[in-house]
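hiii so um. not sure if this is the right channel but i have a protein structure encoded as C-alpha cells and i wanna go backwards to a sequence. like what aa goes where. can anyone help
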C-alpha cells in the first residue's frame, strides 16, 4: 500500500532543526529494515516564495499568488511511502510526529495521511467495478 503524508503547520521562515532532520533519517533507516519504504520526501518553500493557487469556482479559473495570509495551516512537506498495512502507515506517522515534539519544541501541526490509488484501483474509485 502506498501513502502520502502531508505535513501541515503554521507557515514560518524557520528551517526545521538539524537534530530533527537527523532523527527523521534514523527513523527512515529503521523503517527500511522493517519493511517501510520511503519512496520520496521533501520540504516546501513558504508560500511567499513562488506559491500560487489555481482555483476553479463558479466556472472561473483564478490564479492567486502567495503568500496566503488567510491560511491558518499550509502543507510544508510531504512523503510518499509504501507499507504493508494502513495500521503501519499510522504507526510510522505517529513516530514521525513524536520526533517533531522531541526535537522542535513549540512546533504545532498535523500530518494528513492519505492512501494513494493506482491504475488497478481506478475502476473501483469511479464506481465501475464489477462485470
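sure thing!! here u go:
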Amino acid at each position: 500500500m502506498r501513502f502520502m503524508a502531508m505535513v501541515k503547520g503554521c507557515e514560518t521562515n524557520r528551517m526545521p532543526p538539524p537534530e530533527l532532520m537527523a532523527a527523521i533519517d534514523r527513523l527512515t533507516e529503521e523503517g527500511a529494515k522493517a519493511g517501510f519504504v520511503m519512496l520520496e520526501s521533501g520540504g516546501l518553500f513558504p508560500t511567499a516564495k513562488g506559491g500560487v493557487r489555481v482555483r476553479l469556482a463558479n466556472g472561473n479559473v483564478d490564479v492567486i499568488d502567495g503568500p496566503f495570509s488567510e491560511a491558518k495551516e499550509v502543507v510544508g512537506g510531504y512523503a510518499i511511502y509504501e507499507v504493508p498495512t494502513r495500521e503501519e502507515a499510522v504507526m510510522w506517522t505517529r513516530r514521525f510526529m513524536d520526533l517533531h515534539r522531541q526535537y522542535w519544541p513549540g512546533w504545532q501541526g498535523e500530518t494528513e495521511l492519505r492512501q494513494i490509488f493506482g491504475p488497478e484501483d481506478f475502476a473501483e474509485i469511479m464506481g465501475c467495478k464489477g462485470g
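oh and The mean pLDDT is 89.
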